[in-house]
Amino acid sequence: xxxxxxxxxxxxxxxxxxxxxxxxxxxxxxxxxxxxxxxxxxxxxxxxxxxxxxxxxxxxxxxxxxxxxxxxxxxxxxxxxxxxxxxxxxxxxxxxxxxxxxxxxxxxxxxxxxxxxxxxxxxxxxxxxxxxxxxxxxxxxxxxxxxxxxxxxxxxxxxxxxxxxxxxxxxxxxxxxxxxxxxxxxxxxxxxxxxxxxxxxxxxxxxxxxxxxxxxxxxxxxxxxxxxxxxxxxxxxxxxxxxxxxxxxxxxxxxxxxxxxxxxxxxxxxxxxxxxxxxxxxxxxxxxxxxxxxxxxxxxxxxxxxxxxxxxxxxxxxxxxxxxxxxxxxxxxxxxxxxxxxxxxxxxxxxxxxxxxxxxxxxxxxxxxxxxxxxxxxxxxxxxxxxxxxxxxxxxxxxxxxxxxxxxxxxxxxxxxxxxxxxxxxxxxxxxxxxxxxxxxxxxxxxxxxxxxxxxxxxxxxxxxxxxxxxxxxxxxxxxxxxxxxxxxxxxxxxxxxxxxxxxxxxxxxxxxxxxxxxxxxxxxxxxxxxxxxxxxxxxxxxxxxxxxxxxxxxxxxxxxxxxxxxxxxxxxxxxxxxxxxxxxxxxxxxxxxxxxxxxxxxxxxxxxxxxxxxxxxxxxxxxxxxxxxxxxxxxxxxxxxxxxxxxxxxxxxxxxxxxxxxxxxxxxxxxxxxxxxxxxxxxxxxxxxxxxxxxxxxxxxxxxxxxxxxxxxxxxxxxxxxxxxxxxxxxxxxxxxxxxxxxxxxxxxxxxxxxxxxxxxxxx
Length: 765
Hints:
By secondary structure, the protein is of the alpha+beta class. The protein is built from 21 helices and 19 strands. The strands form 6 sheets. Strands 4, 5, 6, 9, 12, 13, 14 and 15 form an 8-stranded mixed sheet that branches. A hairpin with a 3-residue loop joins β1 and β2. α4 runs antiparallel to α5, α7 runs parallel beside α9 and α18 runs antiparallel to α19. It is extended. Interacts with HYDIN. Belongs to the TRAFAC class myosin-kinesin ATPase superfamily. Kinesin family. InterPro entries: KIF6/9_C, Kinesin-like_fam, Kinesin_motor_CS, Kinesin_motor_dom, Kinesin_motor_dom_sf, P-loop_NTPase. Essential for normal male fertility and for progressive motility of spermatozoa.
């Protein structure tokens, strides 16, 4: 018997008289809770449990609502409800509805809502919304990552929802992907833990307010604990039950540790469930635990276990706080406004202090030039002192000192370069040419002193007399060029030709880089291809349409020469690149096969030499095997062949990747060419002439936008009429329109996918 008071549950069990007179069996239990709901409606459950948590989430407080209990106790019904009946919807759809209702009531804030749906099945993370066409399955497995902002799931898709119907569609999409199974305790038992998260971000529409709030609501539907003896689970269901019970045990351990104020370590990382809910169990979060129990004596042990868990959860302390953040863009604007006010206030103080007009703005080019002139006159001695106005002017004075010093250094260096020729001491070729030209002293060192930059100063030869002109006297560059010509006199290439060839070598990329660049250009041309304008004259200059359409092969040739010429050109270029890659891959394959055959022959010869050495007797020297020269050469040859094989094989793999990519581009161009041809053929020979005006460039209909079969009838179809009729006659009123629309769209999508899969399977058979 279970009796419920406002805040406690008392359980009394009659003693088993079969155990005799002396019977110490416990018959009474009492649990104090925050509230008890018995035979309550879904409306009352939501009002009591979740309404305040969701309302505070829009004020910046995080919230978590968790359903816990035995399998078959009604957790999923409480959290999700039945999607077929609007009145029996659960906490989750009602929370979404409340969020969007409250957004409508707050016109002073711009609020964005995002949702995600996570499933934890057999200690693996799955995205229940990955089946959406714009998401797709993740290549890398999802992981739980911690940062100073909290815990988030790397790889989990988060979806922006601007209206209530979109949020319901995401909810129903995730519900259809959940894993369920049947056993004796529950026909539709959830075999995984699911966490539906609503992310809220609210910005004030007042531009001066730089603060904004963020929050999230975690709605957790835990899989039910079960006794294997009662559920009769076998095979895969037995394995799932083992993982479920294990994770729930770790969750209870974490709750016990959170309730103990003396504990320093909380075991959150024992399982994926507790790790994902680390920042949602206690701490900065409004936490509500909803425990579903049976009222039957046959389920007493599981009921007591669930109530003990709820009692331990009451010991967990929470300290929810508003999650405030700052908008960087608004903060900058506010600081700029404050800076302008401070400048105005400073100007008032300057005027009250009888100071001259002081400009606190950044200096312009004219002011900087004036300071530069003052600094130069100060250095030349024509100006005794520089007047100090403000701190910004002092900083600019020092900056101009640096500029003047740098300019003087450059002038000195340019003067030295005009008078002397500077060479790098690390340039051994230039040093050799200098030595041959006789620009060295008696000791064999370069004439001149180093200037601190690793250069030497070259001067005329020591034997030259000053003040006399000598025909043999040449500039240093002429001497270098003459010595270079002497060394390379046999080369027919002139210096000019050598410079040109060198520049070409520097500018021309390698073949592989060129191929990649070429392929990138092709890809850009293909991906950015738009419907090409017709090269034909204007409509009034066109020849009259033939009475019967020409054959498609003939029309296709005309199309490739006129409107589809650009697509056809790109298609041919991509195809030529593809053929060239295939040819190179074939040649590489032949080289690999030749190397493989040579490796096999070398291995056979090497094995023969080894067997011969073993027969003749092996010799060792200091523990090392002694082999003859022929076997050693075979080993080196085999090593080189293996190296060549690896290199060629890597090149073949790269070529295959390029071939696959080029094939994709060719297929894309071919499909685009055929599609554009069909559009052009229908527009040119089937659409009535009086409708051609709408298809002109700038007309109301883009080419190919409307099928030919429907270009004359653009009315509503049956589905549109049904949707309008459904919104009018829905019995639950306008609040249920978004709920039912999302349900209908989800069912239509899944029915379509099932039909397409069935057609594909039938086609394969």
